[in-house]
Amino acid sequence: MSIFPRQRPGSSGRRKSARGGRLAVLDGLRILAALMVVFHHYIGYGGGTKPEISAWGKPAEQVFHRASAPAAYLWTGICLFFVISGFVICMSSWGRPVGDFVRSRVIRLYPAYWFAVLLTTAVVTMWPLVRQPLPSEQVLANLTMFHVGLGIPNVDAVYWTLWAELRFYLLFAIVVWRGVTYRRIVAFCSIWTVAGIVSASTKWPVLEFFAMSDVSSFFVAGLALYLVHRYGPNLMLFGIVGISWILSVLYTIQHQHDVNTVLGRPELATWPAVLLTTVSYLVITGVALGWGSRIQWRWLTFAGALTYPLYLLHEAMGWTALRALYDHGTKPWTAVAVVTTGMLVASWLVHRLVEKPLTPRLKTGMTRSIAQLRAAEPLPARPAAPAPAPGVLETVTTPWATAFTPRDTHPPQHTPGPH
């Protein structure tokens, strides 16, 4: 019996989510992850080696006391983000050519990002209460989203995750180029996991660049869990998820130690961060098994649309607003409530006034560019396989020989994702 699933021709897959394949529960989890990061930066961050680089200009525990300790662990919303990203990218790229995959990533990431870079720069230039603006040439480099590779700092520190996402997309584009199938995703997950382990020990710069040994396990887990969602669970897929979870736990422990150092709070334990990372895995596993398929509240889709702008806008501009309110006598919890609400409203405005108008125009331009590229250089036709010579027996594959031969018989279908 093959470890790769086989389905009847014309089968639509093991599970279908409602509304044309969109999983609304993922939108809810994305906004939850974004709010976790927001409250980490607003309530749990600040103090230690650089107390001035925070919303309050002093250690967070002096402002929020007991509440600052739980908030110090909420950076793990990033872990949930990354697992969701692997799940959704696999879902949304199925059956798509690589040109469409690249186009979808560009029109999804760049309009809100360009606006956020320029708006954040303007805010910290006019009110440098917490952050100082970067030189204009470095701001221009940030607009490419490839600036980290050039050694240029981020306009806003949260952009570091976008650099990880871009490298994930670059690697996964190879799978999309070849055609997304069950066995190719499994091979990709396996190779990437091994590469990450090797890069962590060899410290080869090029391998480290692509392997991303620190965070690749989250993306791999998301990819494998989408296969669970699409085809059903089996030991191989849960083995991939289990290995990824172990690697993610190791990263979580190290990152929490780094956070504790920055906060100047070495007494903070690491187990709450490990628990939150584990919960992230369990929640997406539940989604993969179909436990959230009946959750189709309309407000989740609306909330999911705010996630990306909220993440881009909240730190530098939010800290500036919090510092201004705090310095003028506003109570800390009131300031957090006001600024968080303001960031959500600003996120809706960015979605409504920036993403919605620019996305279709950018999509049209990229579609024309890709069509022109395909028309200018058509791919050469593959030569037909030669017929066997007379008297030569064709190779016959026996059932036992095909037992471990990867095969993907699921017909490609486009399933739009929320990411």
Structural key phrases:
0% strand, disordered C terminus, 15 helices, 419 residues, mainly alpha
Description:
This protein starts with 23 loop residues before the first helix and ends in a 17-residue tail after the last helix. It is 65% helix and 0% strand. The protein has 15 helices and no strands. The protein has one domain. The protein has helices at 24-44, 60-64, 68-71, 77-93, 98-126, 136-142, 160-178, 182-202, 205-211, 216-231, 235-263, 271-288, 298-327, 332-376, 399-402. With 419 residues, it is mainly alpha-helical.
How would you briefly describe this protein structure?
This protein is mainly alpha-helical and 419 residues long. The chain is built from 15 helices and no strands. The chain has helices spanning 24-44, 60-64, 68-71, 77-93, 98-126, 136-142, 160-178, 182-202, 205-211, 216-231, 235-263, 271-288, 298-327, 332-376, 399-402.
